[in-house]
Amino acid sequence: MWMICKKEWQQFFNSLTGYIALVIFLLITGLFLFVFPDSSILDFGYASLDSFFDLAPWVLLFLVPTITMRSIADEYKAGTFELLRTLPLHSAQIVWGKFFGAWLIVIAALAPTIIYAFSVEALSVDVGLDVGATIGSYVGLALLGGVFTAIGICASSFTSNTVIAFVASAFTCFILYSGFLAISKLPVFAGGADYYIEMLGVDFHYRSISRGVIDTRDIIYFAAMIILFLSITQRKILQYK
What ranges do the domains of the chain cover? Predict the structure, then answer.
């Protein structure tokens, strides 16, 4: 499994596209956090990374599909998937290896943004950052990235076209992240099922962890979503001929 994981990591960073994707992610988040007037923390008057943690999921929604779209689709297209299946590896090891390889890349993209937290803390005059909420938000981003990665791997297993894999992955991530929240706002669900419908969405659990309290229910939700999509992926590659 770790051989597959290492291969995913090396394949991504062996191409210029990989570096460009990470640079764009850091550039966009940095501009919104420090430059653009409507979201710049320099105009807030207090230490906060809320604008970053509100924006980051939407950027990840496009970054993660970029990372995962070639994961299995390229194996189909190049004809190397048959070779991959001849290795002494179970299908679950192949799927989880690709997942961990891509997820590590996502975490590697998030890691440099910790500099933002140190910068904001250094710039604060009175009360600094809420450490608990900041740590919780980073944990939430990492778990959110894990769910998006599992979705991307799953989408990539259904096609040999990387563009289709990207679009399908981004659309599914969008629906799971904000779709249930939008549905819960419909008047027909007001005061009744709205809360439970919202709970089905990724955004609900991400915001819950971002408060700084690591709730077991949120961890179980993220783990269940990852396992669900990777199980679908495993079944799909077993059917590949």
Answer: 2-239
